[in-house]
């Protein structure tokens, strides 16, 4: 007899989910609001709610910022099918394949590059963003050991940052919001610099003061720090916070001064999202180590990459361990690499720049009316990112539901309702997203709006 019991006919998929699955940052609960996705095409999702009712929504989240070219993109579909017909996976220990080599070459060709700055020359393909951050942190520690500074095991991170959910990555996330208190025995003790001043309000004195604070920390802890880690220009899951490019140049200088590796986490910002292909390019700097993920495969498959300079790669390879000590089972998964190559070729065509500019204009215009709502503290945009910061925590289920009624899928967190639409969003789809966000916030959080 099969151990798998057919579920009772009257149970909906959503009910079955609730009795067996976990969802992100969620309790194991039978009352979690959920919608079932039946179909996805372009920027549209077909949802079904618990009562079985259907809703068509535009996806303002790009499925957590990854589906930049939309669902069922013909070029990405074709790349996946081509690779599927050859092989989906082979181990990467002792073997190699065309999709991985091509991907490394493409990434290095597209990565930030500036005269007089470090040169990114080597790629490690990891299976998720968090893992690429783990690899970056381990590489930095191995680099310092190989350079005769084995005491340098800690990192200087920026308050308000988010770098992933694995242990070392959590250890460099914001120490207050970043779940540190739940895992006191598990997380490394790192050094946290204040958040930079906000891009919208920064004046030269604020930036100078911040620079002094960071420089002081780097001096005080210099001989125990392996590197500095930051999300360039836009802190994403840590608060959708935008800061001036000048602050990135300051981090680069301080890293140089103290022999620290600069690790930029572009998992959220990479591949055009902020209006430059990489956010580091707003500041004209190149990190020693770069992490990318999320949009790398156009949101089709899980894949991330860690890029580093030739200097770092050579030092670690000739250090005491003689190797970079990491090697995931699904490293360089060929199917994921093949789709990533198709996605990078679309980006290399250059149309993303116009797309992101169009979305930026549309979000800036469409979200402006929210500034008049009592509940809204600030409206901000950068590239294809639009943020409504509320004065208080968002009623997530209520705002989600209200936005769905307006034909928009959003996933607010804390006091933030934001959009990061796929690059293929047209002007009218972008306007619909902004209208839906403003209307949902007005209906749920604003007296004037609901009156
Ligand atoms: C999403 C994200 C990560 C973690 O990536 P996962 O693929 O979810 O592990 C790390 N850093 C930043 C900046 C991110 O936005």
Task: Walk me through the structure.
Helices cover 37% and strands 17% of the residues. With 451 residues, the protein is α/β, with parallel strands linked by helices. The strands form 4 sheets. A 7-stranded mixed sheet has the order 4-12-11-10-7-5-6, sandwiched between helices. A 4-stranded mixed sheet has the order 1-2-3-15. The radius of gyration is 22 Å and the shape is globular. Residues 128-130, 133, 162-164, 231, 236-237, 265, 267-268, 293-294 line the site of pyridoxal-5'-phosphate (PLP).
What's the short story on this structure?
A hairpin with a 2-residue loop joins strand 1 (about 35-40) and strand 2 (about 45-50).
N-to-C order of helices and strands: HEEEHHHEHEHEHEEEHEEEHHHEEHEEHH
The computed structural class is alpha/beta
**Total beta strands:** 16
Strand composition percent: 15-25%
Distance between the termini: 60 Å
- What proportion of the residues is helical, as a percent range? 25-40%
Radius of gyration from CA coordinates = 22 Å
- Shape verdict: globular
What order do the strands of the largest sheet run in, or round the barrel if closed?
Answer: 4-12-11-10-7-5-6
């Amino acid at each position: 007899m099969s151990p798998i019991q057919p579920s009772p006919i009257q149970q909906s998929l959503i009910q079955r989910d609730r009795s067996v699955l976990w969802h992100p940052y969620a309790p194991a609960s039978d009352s979690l609001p959920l919608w079932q996705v039946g179909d996805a095409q372009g920027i549209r999702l077909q949802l079904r709610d618990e009562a079985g009712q259907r809703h068509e929504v535009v996806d303002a989240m790009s499925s957590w910022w990854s589906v930049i070219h939309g669902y069922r993109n013909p070029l990405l579909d074709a790349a996946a099918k081509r690779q599927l017909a050859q092989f989906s996976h082979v181990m990467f220990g002792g073997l190699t394949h065309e999709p991985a080599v091509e991907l490394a070459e493409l990434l290095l060709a597209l990565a930030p590059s500036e005269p007089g700055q470090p040169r990114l020359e080597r790629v490690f393909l990891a299976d998720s963003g968090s893992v690429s951050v783990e690899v970056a942190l381990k590489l930095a520690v191995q680099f310092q050991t190989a350079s005769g500074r084995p005491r340098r095991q800690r990192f200087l991170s920026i308050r308000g940052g988010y770098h992933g959910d694995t242990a070392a990555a959590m250890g460099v996330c914001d120490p207050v919001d970043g779940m540190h208190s739940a895992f006191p025995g598990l997380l490394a003790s790192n050094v946290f610099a204040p958040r930079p001043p906000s891009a919208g309000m920064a004046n030269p004195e604020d930036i100078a003061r911040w620079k002094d604070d960071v420089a002081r920390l780097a001096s005080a802890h210099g001989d125990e720090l392996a590197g500095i880690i930051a999300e360039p220009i836009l802190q994403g899951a840590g608060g959708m916070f935008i800061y001036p490019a000048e602050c990135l140049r300051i981090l680069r200088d301080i890293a140089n001064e103290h022999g620290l590796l600069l690790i930029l986490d572009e998992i959220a910002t990479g591949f055009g999202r902020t209006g430059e292909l990489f956010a580091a390019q707003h500041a004209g700097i190149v990190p020693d180590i770069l992490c990318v993920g999320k949009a790398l495969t156009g949101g089709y498959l899980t894949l991330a990459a860690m890029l580093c300079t030739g200097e770092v790669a050579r030092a670690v390879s000739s250090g005491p361990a003689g190797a970079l000590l990491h090697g995931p089972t699904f490293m360089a998964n060929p199917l994921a690499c093949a789709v990533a190559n198709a996605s990078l070729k679309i980006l290399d065509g250059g149309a993303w720049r116009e797309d992101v500019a169009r979305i930026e204009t549309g979000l800036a215009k469409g979200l402006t009316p929210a500034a008049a709502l009592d509940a809204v503290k600030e409206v901000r945009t950068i590239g294809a990112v639009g943020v409504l910061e509320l004065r208080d925590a968002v009623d997530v289920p209520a705002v989600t539901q209200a936005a769905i009624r307006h034909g928009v899928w959003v996933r607010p967190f804390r006091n933030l309702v934001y959009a990061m639409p796929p690059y293929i969003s047209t002007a009218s789809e972008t306007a619909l997203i902004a209208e839906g966000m403003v209307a949902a916030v007005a209906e749920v959080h604003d007296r004037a709006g609901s009156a």
